[in-house]
UniProtKB/TrEMBL annotation:
InterPro entries: DUF1883 (IPR015073), DUF1883-like_sf (IPR036488). This is DUF1883 domain-containing protein. The lineage of its organism: Bacteria, Pseudomonadati, Pseudomonadota, Alphaproteobacteria, Hyphomicrobiales. Coiled coil: none annotated. Residues 6-93 form the DUF1883 domain. Pfam families: DUF1883 (PF08980). It comes from the Bacteria. SUPFAM superfamilies: Atu1913-like (SSF141099). It comes from Rhizobium daejeonense.
């Protein structure tokens, strides 16, 4: 099994509910990629993989979990000068507003 040729930081976000917001703080421009366990495995094996996110030119950036499940977040330096220091904070998903009957 090969490994990506660039350095990266991995955050195992565990199970998260759809709509949860992830706030990522970076010390430099890097790639931020949110992915499922299957895509994280493909990333580690240097195969094609799918993710949400991309080049983070500002900090902090926020990503919204698209569906409930297990998620991984990668911060990587591919195409950039070095690996940024990073931190991740989970912001609990807002509750859906209750619908009230119009009178």
């Amino acid at each position: 099994m090969s490994k990506p040729s660039f350095r990266f930081s991995h955050y195992d976000l565990q199970e998260l509910r759809a709509g949860t917001i992830i706030e990522v703080t970076l010390s430099a421009v890097n790639n931020v990629r949110l992915m499922t366990p299957g895509n994280f495995q493909r990333f580690k094996e240097t195969l094609d993989f799918k993710y949400l996110g991309g080049v983070a030119k500002k900090s902090p950036i926020k990503l919204t979990i698209p569906e409930s499940g297990h998620w991984h977040l990668i911060v990587d330096m591919e195409g950039h000068h070095g690996l940024a220091d990073s931190s991740v904070k989970t912001i609990v998903a807002p509750h859906a507003p209750r619908m009230s009957k119009a009178s």
